Amino acid sequence: MNTLPYFDPALMIALPLLAAFLIPLLKRASERIPKFVPLLILGFNLYESIALLPHSLQKPIVVIIAAWQPPLGINLTIGPLGNILALIISLVGFVVAVYNIKFVLEEPGEKYYMLFLLMITGATGMVLTGDLFNLFVFLEITSISAYALTAFIRDRNGAEAAFKYLLIGSISSTMILLGIALIYASTGTLNMADIAQKIGQVDSRITLAALILMIVGFGVESEIFPLNGWAPDAYSQAPTPVGAVFGGIVVKAGVYGLARVIYTIFSFQGVFHFILIMGIITLLMAEMSALRQKQIKRMLAFSSIGQMGLVLIALGLATQNAVAGGLFQMFNHALIKPLLFLSAGYLVYYSGSKDIGDLDGMGKIKPVTSFFFAFGAFALMGLPPLNGFWSKLIIISETVKSGYIVLAALALTGSIIEAVYYLRVVGRLYFKSPEEHVKTKYVHASAVVAMSILAGLALFAGLFPDVILHYLQPAARELMDKTQYIQAVIAIK
Amino acid sequence: MIYYIGAFSLILIGIYAVLVKRNLIKIVIGLSLVDAGVHLLLIAIGYIKDKTAPIFSNPSLSAGDMVDPVPQALVLTAIVIGVAVTALALTIVIRLYDHHKTLNINKIRELKW
Amino acid sequence: MKPVALVLLILFGSSILSYTLGKVHSLIENTIALIALLWAGTVFAMQYGVSDTFSFSMAGFDIVWRISILSWFFGMMAFIIGLGVVIYSMAFMKDKERIGYYCFALCITIAGTIGIVVSADLISFFFFWEIMTWSSFLMVIYYRYEAQKAGIKYFVMSLIGAYSMLLAIFLIYSHTHSTRFDVLTVMWENFSSGLQIALLSLFFVGFGVKAAIMPLHTWAPDAYRISPSPFTAFFSGILSKMGIFGLILLFYVFSAGSLAAHFVTVNGVALPGYLLAWFGALTALIATIIAIVQDDAKRLLAYSSVAQLGYIALGIGLSSSLGLAGAMFHAVNHTIFKVMLFMAVGAVIYRTGTYKFSELGGLITRMPYTFFVVLLGIITLAGIPPLSGFVGKWMLYEALLQQKMVFLAIVTFAASTAAFLYCYRLIFTIFLGQRPERFDHIKEVPWSMRAPMLLLSLLTIYLGMYPYHLIDLIGKVESTLFGIVPVDMSQSVLFSRMGSVNTLTVMNIVGVVFVLVFVLFNTLYKRSRKVVLKDIHTSGEVPGPHINLHYAVDFYQPFSRGVSAILKRSADRLYAAIGENLENLFDLMRYIYTGNGQTYAMYVVIFLALLFVFSQWLV
């Protein structure tokens, strides 16, 4: 296979960071430039992560920064997992950037683009870094820009949501820091591969404490029940594209952190059962809550939590196929949830209300947007031939195979609840007669392009799941078998 | 040892403030306290008795005479992050006060369900 | 390209083509569907007895497609009815909105159906099953504003069925590490009894929902009632047969007759089959009773459909050669006559715009062809010789008696007899009696609607004359696939232990009598005076508005009063109540998501503390 030429992977983090801080300056040159900067940068990231993929599949790429050898210096470790997640992040970021071109913002736009780029920088950094403390720093970059973006629309609810998010988010990051401190105290290193190597010799009480702290810390970001109180508020109050990014990117980075912690760094077996149980609880609680929501974005937020529950189940099963299925589910969710958010954003914009009840008959007035919403809903429910079908199939299959039949049944019950509330919304779009006062504005071309990319990819992944799984299997292997990861880093010495 | 006790008591006081105080400002202070506690803990981990700061201020100093530099670097970073979070938190509190005319967290509960 | 793959490709491709090209010109949509069906149908039909296999791997699962003779049997039914429905739709859907959407969903549904029958592994079976479900859901909600409740109910119940099937599939997969039918057939007898019970009940829910077996039928009347009439025909004729197809697979392919070794047998039938037979018989009886009291033509037919599927399930449950043959024969019959009836009722709706019996009447002179179709349809339905319905029911009864199942036989007889009542209601209230004035000038429906109905009528007459042709095919299916010795028969004589019927003779006699009477009637009564049906007199009194002169209102009043006790307990209402209560229960989540940020922070800390307390679990 021909491989594309690639650049220094560190640029994937450095460029967005640089661009983010350049945006206010560029604004002085022209009002229009800031809009296109994220597009350009994320386009580069997308290219870069695609070009890297064949190499990282062979063996993890280790990038040494500032000539310090690991485990002393900070390094990037780009294995298949990190690379694929970086690809997902760049992809979603790129699509949202396309959508952003025309999205209506009352505020000065350049700050928005700056924060947006920062958030993506943070998420990309999280999945690429090989250093535990660096992970924390990137998590903080992501979170801080996410807090700010939540409050971006300067209304009362935005501020409230942002405060809740900030409150819980900073508690969680403190816990992660505490966990890092414990790990450093006992192993004397921060390099993840090095920690993984040395953790066996450490008193298991200390590592257990560190593990608990980190599970809780990353659990907040990956929306484990009951740590997810911030999520519905933040999702629903942030500007639409930001909600999409939360669902598509931020959560993924959180789950990545969690997976790294439980699979690579520590080697406790019981934690998988715990994650499994938390997964099913998260799934059921979220679906039950989503059923009763009156606002469409809150409903989507709860649905997002539910999907993460499914991913957690897959991670908790800890078989290679299940993990691959879980990653597939993450990939699908990263495509579909932004699609739903973007289309819902337009629907809300047209109807002028966030309530589901006010979306009556939008299918007739706004056929394109409604179609994309319905498409996303169908894909999320896991109807063939769309992508959600396969990931759900694999996860349920592995659940039953591991002997958790009741659990599989419960997860399927969750899916049924999910179908009910999505159908209700789709039903309102199509079944009710439209009301009069709806603004008649056309969907911007950029939004249509953005949504079409997502929908097209969802269909593609549904028709050719093997193409995606081909890349996900090595990523799952990376999680399951940490020796490869460790060796790739230690070999540099 | 005293450093550890101090660090943990700071963390606990902070958490207490976050969970029990109703005033938004006090909650933010609580968050800062937790942060400070963790920072102190990190420094305490790297501290070795009778060693000096990890700076080559004097040519006669060897690496063996210094405390562990890594936690200090971490703490510097963490402090910066903590400041950013606190600043952001305070702006949000100001915004909340503008809209709600109260700092009581129990009264700012419009987003539920 | 392998023919199996080609068939599916044509069908799925046509759905997309007909949607996209249909935007160019509205005529294209139906034409593409028609061509695709003809083409794919021909390719499919030529695969008779070839048993060609196409397999590949997808997402780690083995996918196998094969046109076995059983697939061929059900697939040809789908193609024939599909063609009829497409032709019928050409006129029916003309000038309606969103024809592209309609054609798209119709083609996908047909494609999904064919996909189901050619699947030889559980994963692709489930895949196509889900495709069929959502595409038929799209059809149910075609009339969007009214269809919401019915549509969602249909979809959710289908999903419950599909997911219970999925659980069963993965239970099998975790035990056999394969999803192929042939592996399953071999492995089934090694399963423990508990596993078998679990599998059977999960599959029963999965297939039972689609086959509308009571108490899983509640979606059917509403969904049938609301979907566009041509599609209702396909729904009842083919989609419900997929449930039957699944049950046949379950009892004869998956478990491959090894059930008897694991379970208690009742009168020579393994317990699961016996239970299925009872489910079927009770479904037949209860649904028939409910059908009688309907005032809505499509709901009546829907309940009748449920009842007939009950008979078929009964035959499958009997697990004897004759029972299965009867079930399959009756399945074909049911497909034919139910499609005829739904098309005919659709024709009436097309012209009159109503399906309420109490608003119709006297259409015999205006729509004679439709009347004729309905007449033949109900004769087949009721199982009266000489039409094909008789043969199917005959075989079922005989199978019952052969196995000495007296109580089942009684229930079935009762249901069958009661069916006369609704048949009569259907034909009488629509076509006979007095005609409301506003329908005085309606015309017969266009030929493209008449043709499929009439062709199917010919088919039922033909099968009534030569049931042997179909029985022979069924016998082949039975012997090649299940290794069951087929039923004994010759050209036109149906042998059995209780005697034999020569269907050809019966048909000849009836035909001669019919022609004789028809000629006599037309010659002798030519000069008779025609009275308008409204010339009824009320003994000199002027009827006030409170006196109901339309006999179709409360048609079977005494009867419905008699059965009202049964009707009061509705599974539908029960499910609705359960759903509502569950939803209210979910409101408890409100107490968790209080909206107070501090509470959420508290959760985090408590969660942390709990983890520390129970930290030993994590090791």
The structural domain count of chain B equals 1
Number of helices of chain A: 20
| Helix-strand makeup class of chain A | mainly alpha
Cα-atom Rg of chain A, whole angstroms?
Answer: 21 Å
Number of helices, counting only DSSP H or I runs of 4 residues or more of chain B = 3
Strand content of chain B: under 5%
Strand order of the largest sheet of chain A: 1-2
* Straight-line N-to-C gap of chain A: 30 Å
Q: What gyration radius of chain B follows from the Cα positions, in whole Å?
A: 19 Å
The CATH class of chain B, by name, is Mainly Alpha
CATH topology of chain B: Helix Hairpins
Number of strands of chain A: 2
H/E series of chain A: HHEEHHHHHHHHHHHHHHHHHH
Assign a percent range to the helix content of chain A. Answer: over 70%
Low-confidence stretches of chain A: none
Keywords (chain C): Cell membrane, Membrane, Oxidoreductase, Transmembrane, Transmembrane helix
Membrane topology (chain C): Multi-pass membrane protein
InterPro entries (chain C): ComplexI-like_HydComp, NADH_UbQ_OxRdtase, ND/Mrp_TM
GO molecular function (chain C): NADH dehydrogenase (ubiquinone) activity; oxidoreductase activity
What does this structure look like?
The complex is a heterotrimer of chains A (493), B (113) and C (619). Chain A starts with 10 loop residues before the first helix and ends with a helix. Chain A is mainly alpha-helical and 493 residues long. In chain A, helix 9 packs across helix 12 (296-317), helix 10 (240-265) packs antiparallel against helix 13 and helix 13 (320-351) crosses helix 19. Chain A is 76% helix and 2% strand. The model of chain A has no long low-confidence stretch (mean pLDDT 84). By secondary structure, chain B is mainly alpha-helical. In chain B, helix 1 packs antiparallel against helix 2. With 619 residues, chain C is mainly alpha-helical. Helices cover 70% and strands 4% of the residues of chain C. In chain C, the strands form three sheets. A two-stranded antiparallel sheet of chain C has the order 1-2. A two-stranded antiparallel sheet of chain C has the order 3-4. The longest helix of chain C has 33 residues, at 144-176. Chain A: It is a multi-pass membrane protein. Chain A: This is NADH:quinone oxidoreductase/Mrp antiporter transmembrane domain-containing protein.
